[in-house]
């Protein structure tokens, strides 16, 4: 569940960069959250995908 949310947030971040449409720093905050979720999953020893 969390890895799915992280992947969706990363995709939204990339789309925001490509389209030059960002809602202030909000999309970058989402990216940071996605990276934190992935790192926590790796540290806990679970599969990221």
Layout of strands and helices, then pairs:
Layout: H1 2-19, H2 26-43
Describe the overall structure.
The chain has helices at residues 2-19, 26-43. The protein is built from two helices and no strands. The chain is elongated and about 35 Å long. It is mainly α.
Number of domains: 1
Task: Please indicate the percent range of residues in DSSP E strands (runs of 2 or more).
Answer: under 5%
Q: Unreliable segments (pLDDT under 50, ≥5 consecutive)?
A: none
Helix and strand element order: HH
Instruction: Calculate the mean pLDDT score and round it.
Output: 74
Oligomer: single chain
What is the CA–CA distance across the termini?
A: 10 Å
Instruction: Count every helix, treating DSSP H or I runs of 4 or more residues as helices.
Output: 2
Could you describe the largest sheet, including whether it forms a barrel? none
Computed structural class: mainly alpha
- Which word captures the global form? elongated
Number of DSSP strand runs: 0
- C-alpha Rg, in Å? 12 Å
Percent helix among the residues? over 70%
What is the structure about, briefly put?
The protein is an all-alpha fold and 49 residues long. It has helices at 2-19, 26-43. The longest helix is centred in the first third of the chain and has 18 residues, at 2-19.
């Amino acid at each position: 569940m969390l890895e799915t949310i992280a992947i969706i947030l990363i995709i939204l971040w990339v789309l925001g960069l490509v389209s030059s449409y960002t809602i202030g720093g909000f999309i970058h905050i989402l990216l940071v959250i996605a990276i934190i979720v992935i790192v926590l999953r790796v540290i806990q020893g679970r599969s990221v995908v």
